Amino acid sequence: MAFSKLFGSALVLAQLASSNHVQVEERAETAHSEPFYPSPWMNPKAIGWEDAYVKAKDFVSQMTLLEKVNLTTGVGWQSEQCVGQVGSVPRLGLRGLCLQDSPLGVRFADYVSAFPSGQTVAASFDRSLMYQRGKAMGQEHKDKGVNVMLGPSAGPLGRHPEGGRNWEGFAADPWLTGIGLAETVKGIQDTGVIACAKHFIVNEQEHFRQGGPNVSDAISSNVDDKTMHELYLWPFVDAVRAGVGSFMCSYNQVNNSYACQNSKLLNGILKSELGFQGFVMSDWAAQHSGASSAVAGLDMTMPGDVAFNDGKSYWGTNLTLAVINGTIPEYRLDDMAMRIMAAFFKTGNVIEQPQINFDSWTKDTNGPMHYYAKEGEQQINWHVNVQRDHRNLIRDVAAKSTVLLKNENNALPLKSPKFLAVIGEDAGPNPKGPNGCSDRGCDDGTLAMGWGSGTADFPYLVTPLDALTMKTADDGTRLEHVIDNYAWDSTKTLVSQADVTALVFVNADSGEGYITVDGNEGDRNNLTLWGSGDELIKNVSSLCNNTIVVIHSTGPTVVTEWYDSPNVTAILWAGLPGQESGRSIVDVLYGKVNPAARTPFTWGAKREDYGTDIIYEPNNGAGAPQQDFTEGVMIDYRYFDYKNITPIFEFGFGLSYTTFEYSNIKVEKSGAGEYNPTTGSTTEAPTFGNFSTDLTDYAFPSESFPYIPYYIYPYLNTTSSAAEASQDPDYGQTAADPLPRPAPAASDEPGGNRQLWDVMQTVTATVTNTGSLVGDEVPQLYVALGGPSDPPVQLRGFDRMRIEPGQSAEFRATLTRRDLSNWDVASQNWVISDHPKTVYVGPSSRKLVLSAPLEL
Ligand SMILES: *[C@@H]1O[C@H](CO)[C@@H](O)[C@H](O)[C@H]1NC(C)=O
Ligand SMILES: *[C@@H]1O[C@H](CO)[C@@H](O)[C@H](O)[C@H]1NC(C)=O
Ligand SMILES: *[C@@H]1O[C@H](CO)[C@@H](O)[C@H](O)[C@H]1NC(C)=O
Ligand SMILES: *[C@@H]1O[C@H](CO)[C@@H](O)[C@H](O)[C@H]1NC(C)=O
Ligand SMILES: *[C@@H]1O[C@H](CO)[C@@H](O)[C@H](O)[C@H]1NC(C)=O
Ligand SMILES: *[C@@H]1O[C@H](CO)[C@@H](O)[C@H](O)[C@H]1NC(C)=O
Ligand SMILES: *[C@@H]1O[C@H](CO)[C@@H](O)[C@H](O)[C@H]1NC(C)=O
Ligand SMILES: *[C@@H]1O[C@H](CO)[C@@H](O)[C@H](O)[C@H]1NC(C)=O
Ligand SMILES: *[C@@H]1O[C@H](CO)[C@@H](O)[C@H](O)[C@H]1NC(C)=O
Ligand SMILES: *[C@@H]1O[C@H](CO)[C@@H](O)[C@H](O)[C@H]1NC(C)=O
Ligand SMILES: *[C@@H]1O[C@H](CO)[C@@H](O)[C@H](O)[C@H]1NC(C)=O
Q1: How far is the CA of 690 from the centre of ligand 10 (A)?
Q2: For a surface tag, which of 100, 409, 470, 522 has the fewest beta carbons within 10 Å of its beta carbon?
Q3: In which region does residue 158 sit, left (phi positive, over 0), alpha (psi from -120 to 50) or beta (all else)?
């Protein structure tokens, strides 16, 4: 990556790093990012990090320059067992840290569980299930020898319903996503595995995330400061506050500066304002510069090589030289090492780590330890079964996350039906097996996971047809099936018979951009069902007056043409349920689990109703496509409400087999004091050690040291001159001095100014089960902040409560200062506006049956 010579300062260059000068000039007219330097160093007094800091300081103080560089730099794609692995520190007994996908289980490993997706568990609106799922995934990673689990995800957030990776995260709402992220982080880290909040940030589409065939640079998400704080940053704040150990910066640019070298984002917002104390790693090959990314706040490069397997690195040798040379100040390298080791100790780790007992690149027992180089033949897979009894949790989470969208004539729960016709490819298996398509890159058979790196291999997959067959066999129900969407004659014969209940399984898939499925390059091309699912439903329901539809999907689909047919008696959204798919849906269909889940996104009547869309074609010539987030905070339900567009199923909507009533809202003001902006300044950066400037001290250790091809090392191949050793044509830049800086007003503890979590109001309401079945209810609290640019309502609280028939329960939620504030760009702080505010409580974002004014 060339630095432009047009600019004198590395500070500016870091923001404009681009492979060609024309680009920089073209972009002068467009969005840009302000520099923020120097890069903040760890705060020894940061709450929750004090002990970790002391341990990290002790360890890092013993490290040599080469050892520190090793810790920051991946050894290259497929050079070791994990999808990402940094160099080791053998002298001090630390093996290379293992970083492994994914947010729903251990990727590329055997004898692991395949969990429901993040978006699916978000629908449960159940904090405890979110935590338990995180913890179970953490345990499996831990037992395989993983140190950093690459999840959970809050980016994409869901600006576009078509967004390919929305399912990896939680909801198209920052508050719910924030809860999901924090609970998952806590669950993972309680097992001793470092969680990774990703992808930071505004990584809302797959198209052009890394540029493209005819496009020089990655797409730029151009987002204003208020929208950033109130929407996209919000859930990441909750992750920082929950103590997350690592962040992953994303592929895209933000205001035409790559997210992994955007100093305003990494130094400014994440490390200074939010006081994040852990480390930032690049997404795989999302690093675009050496010194610039280092001084902009990147702490670890993944997988270490410039392009997969090119044997070169922006760091490794280059980082060693840059520190010797003074280009990158020593404090910055020390801070990188401190942050990595502090996250390691914070999660309860000791230096002696268990062996990594699996290999990402082959399931063979014996093979090359250095897979790409085909060197180091030995045992690499121990086939350790780490699943415990997680299948029970998986079944429970998926059932409790299944949303009942429609239920007429008591179609559900099923009560010993005489005859079930199971229709649709989505009910059955993939003929190639559940893992038959690499990284789940196809949509064959039932959909239980999207595609891409956010996947795990299924240990087995119970299809809906499997589970229904077992259930009906036990009950003596007749069951016949057609699992070919295009065998209309057979389907017609079944569904036109007397006494039939038709269960139609349909889906819509999406995934990560490096795989294209049926012409969908990660992002969906449309919001209709796949495999002519809509036509199949219309066909079946024209003949069968008890047609029950089950949708497996990565987001909303347009159900307009059939959802209100009187013959479509019930609709369920089952998300991406994971390995227990069939048993979970049977639990819901037969009422073993009374549904209570809520849709974590809006179901619009048509695609245009969302107001945002993916950029599918270059819109800036050969330059980086420009995606202007002009809708501000108005995405998903906020947009529908703001524009007064009626959705088919609103955010937060979901039915039960029983009924609930809401009454008696009360609002009580708490005695929170005045909000004081943080003042003062940070201390001067410390350094932990010294180093020599004699290049010969950094040569490969000896002639006998095994040089593995393509491997990324911290050493110098040649010690004749720094420039030769670096091979970087633009070697030699300077960075900012580590002087004390003023503390941002909104900063303080990890997460921000602690007073933002002061409780301002407590809201209570009574919820009564007025039906005849025990069930869970999800009361939701929304606020109207009242300003002209505020969404009409925003989610600010929820609970999932089990209530016996005829009984009542008290819903209780607190509103913090943060919940009631807007981001004020001028003061760079949160402020509570003078606009009159209202709180609402109800069972969905549009059934706000209770309301009360807020007295501030
Ligand atoms: C992007 O540009 C907008 C508009 O100038 C600004 O409000 C925002 O703070 C910038 N964000 C970043 C990360 O540079
Ligand atoms: C750096 O890591 C590599 C790979 O783990 C290891 O072989 C080497 O000894 C390490 N170097 C130092 C200086 O610790
Ligand atoms: C790239 O540009 C070439 C030449 O204009 C064109 O033929 C090709 O279709 C373009 N590829 C894509 C993916 O747009
Ligand atoms: C140093 O980085 C440059 C890119 O900036 C790269 O071309 C060069 O190969 C790197 N050197 C090493 C030793 O990897
Ligand atoms: C860094 O190294 C380069 C290349 O060897 C050299 O030109 C430059 O003067 C060095 N800078 C410092 C500050 O030592
Ligand atoms: C939408 O995309 C799916 C998957 O590629 C495809 O099966 C379907 O035909 C498309 N729908 C329309 C209306 O083009
Ligand atoms: C729907 O029914 C028509 C006949 O009415 C048939 O031609 C078509 O193939 C059917 N499509 C599906 C997906 O069942
Ligand atoms: C509903 O199903 C019945 C058959 O049970 C059929 O006669 C009728 O036309 C269907 N109605 C609709 C609206 O499809
Ligand atoms: C469906 O049609 C059958 C006759 O085919 C009828 O007995 C039954 O009442 C109908 N059900 C509904 C819900 O309309
Ligand atoms: C680093 O400091 C130690 C302890 O003071 C000293 O023994 C060593 O010689 C120093 N090394 C260099 C390269 O300055
Ligand atoms: C370093 O030296 C090895 C062995 O001669 C060579 O294979 C490798 O390509 C060199 N690496 C770089 C980055 O020059």
Answers
A1: 6
A2: 409
A3: left
Position 25 scores a pLDDT of 34
Peptide linkage before 102 cis (omega within 30 of 0) = yes
Residue ranges, comma separated, of all CATH 3.20.20.300 domains in the chain are 49-94+253-351+691-705+713-733
Q: What is the pLDDT of residue 21?
A: 29
Binding-site residues, ligand 1, Cβ < 6 A: 31, 33, 224-225, 254-255, 262, 264-265
What is the predicted pLDDT for the residue at 724? 83
Does 378 contact ligand 3 (Cβ within 6 A)? Answer: no
Contact predicate 806/800, CB 8 Å: no
Query: Which residues surround ligand 9 with Cβ inside 6 Å?
Result: 409, 545
How much distance in Å is there from the Cα of 716 to the middle of ligand 10? 21
Burial of residue 503 (CB within 10 Å: 0-12, 13-18, 19+) is buried
Whether 101 is catalytic is no
Max distance between CA atoms of the chain, in angstroms, equals 88
- Where in the sequence of the chain do the CATH 3.40.50.1700 domains occur? 391-614+632-658
Q: Probe ligand 10: pick from 690, 693, 694, max atoms within 8 Å of CB?
A: 690
Position 704 scores a pLDDT of 81
Q: Report which ligand 9 atom has the smallest distance to the Cα of 569.
A: 13
Q: Name which of 792, 840, 421 is nearest 641 in CA terms.
A: 792
How far is 660 from 658, CA to CA, in rounded Å?
7
CB atoms within 10 A of CB 661: 14
Dist CA 465 CA 589 (whole Å): 13
Which of 217, 283, 509, 776 does the annotation list as catalytic? 283
Ordered DSSP codes for 343-386: HHHHTT--SS-PPP---SS---SEEEEETTTTEEEEE-------
Residue 682 confidence (pLDDT):
86
Nearest ligand 1 atom to the CA of 269 is 13
pLDDT at 30: 76
CATH class of residue range 391-614+632-658: alpha beta
Report in angstroms the alpha-carbon separations of 115 from 107, 492, 838. 11, 35, 38
Q: Where are the beta strands (DSSP E) in 101-142?
A: none
Block means of pLDDT (10 residues each) for the chain, length 856 residues? 27 31 40 91 97 98 98 98 98 98 98 98 98 98 98 98 98 98 98 98 98 93 98 98 98 96 96 98 96 94 97 96 90 97 98 98 98 98 98 99 98 97 98 98 98 98 98 98 98 98 98 98 98 98 98 98 98 99 98 98 98 97 96 98 98 98 97 91 91 95 88 94 76 61 88 95 98 98 97 98 98 98 97 98 98 94
φ/ψ (deg, to 5) at 750: -55, 125
From-to residues of CATH 2.60.40.10 in the chain: 661-677+748-854
User: Domain 49-94+253-351+691-705+713-733 carries which CATH code?
Assistant: 3.20.20.300
Query: What is the structure's pLDDT at 19?
Result: 32
The distance from CA 791 to its chain's CA centroid, rounded to whole angstroms, is 24
Residue bearing the CA closest to ligand 7, atom 9: 488
> CB neighbours (10 Å) of residue 493?
13
